[in-house]
UniProtKB/TrEMBL annotation:
Keywords (A to Z) from UniProt: NADP, Oxidoreductase
UniProt xrefs under InterPro entries: NAD(P)-bd_dom_sf, NmrA-like, NmrA/Isoflavone_reductase-like
GO MF entries: oxidoreductase activity
Native species: Coniophora puteana (strain RWD-64-598) (Brown rot fungus)
Name of the featured protein: NAD(P)-binding protein
Location of the NmrA-like domain: 10-236
């Protein structure tokens, strides 16, 4: 007998950058979506197929009750980095609800499994926590958001594309829309056995940072090499880190931290599961 696909979903962090794309993509699949938001939030999406429940994420009993009332099977986190600690009580609530069969932690970036650096370690610990709780998980690695290419180059602030990395190692980038669309596609079409405790690796575009910078150079934005991102730029450390990380190969979704090599074939790139989809390139997204 064929497995029944998941049909009931809840999203936390739906008002954020990638979260709204996940909700919109699920709604486009004609499934009902529950949006969990804090009582103080004013940015939750709404509509005939997106119900909103306001509850404190740290209220394990309250979240469990809401999940149970809506018979949620898949709980998706799209929380920003600073709110990741809320994933622990949310996972405990999902377990207590009894109906949740899959938890999707907020990854949507470069591979983190086995990472020992602060940013990677912080995300990796939540999947380990889910395993300890006995809650199945699904990780989605999508590389750098394509929207961030001009951001890490400080194009808006400096009027130039600042390069602090060598920039000659291929990296993966994916638009937020494609991330949301891909996740919605796989969790509504693949059987649960293909989703539980899995890692999916995708990329909407692939090139070196130098090659992405050249796209801007052709659009009359000069490239300037620098030792580091200027401290007067907001989140300079993060932009510097992402550029430097690209030199190690770690921003490629094919990168396996544990083995220190790129994965090959379908194991390293699972774009093909979204058959027929046309991925948005950096050039197309930014009209370069």
């Amino acid at each position: 007998m064929a497995e029944t696909t998941f049909s009931s979903f809840a999203v936390v962090g739906a008002g954020g950058s990638v979260g709204k794309h996940i909700v919109e993509s699920l709604i486009a699949k004609n499934v009902n979506v529950l949006v969990l938001t804090r009582p103080s939030s004013s940015s939750a999406p709404s509509g005939p197929r997106a119900k909103v429940e306001r509850v404190e994420y740290t209220d394990i009993v309250g979240v469990a009750r809401v999940l149970q009332e809506h018979n949620v099977e898949v709980l998706i986190s799209a929380l920003p980095f600073e709110d990741l600690p809320a994933q622990e009580p949310l996972a405990k609530a999902a377990l207590q609800a009894g109906c949740v069969r899959l938890f999707v932690p907020s990854e949507y970036g470069m591979p983190t499994e086995g990472g020992e650096e602060a940013i990677l370690l912080h995300k990796d610990r939540y999947t380990k926590m889910l395993k300890e709780l006995g809650m199945p998980s699904l990780r989605l690695y999508s590389g750098l958001f394509a929207e961030w290419i001009p951001i890490i180059g400080c194009v808006a602030e400096k009027g130039k594309f600042l390069l602090v990395a060598k920039g000659d190692t291929p990296m993966s980038v994916t638009t937020m829309s494609d991330v949301g669309g891909y996740l919605a596609h796989i969790i509504t079409t693949l059987p649960p056995s293909k989703l539980l405790n899995t890692v999916f690796r995708i990329e909407g575009d692939r090139a070196t940072l130098n090659e992405f910078a050249v796209l801007y150079e052709k659009a009359d934005v000069s490239i300037q090499h620098a030792e580091k991102i200027p401290e007067d730029v907001k989140d300079a450390f993060v932009r510097d880190y992402l550029q430097q990380r690209s030199d190690t190969g770690g921003v490629s979704t094919r990168w396996d931290i544990v083995s220190g090599r790129e994965m090959e074939g379908e194991e390293g790139n699972m774009n093909g599961l979204w058959e027929g989809h046309v991925w948005t390139s950096v050039r197309a997204l930014h009209a370069l």
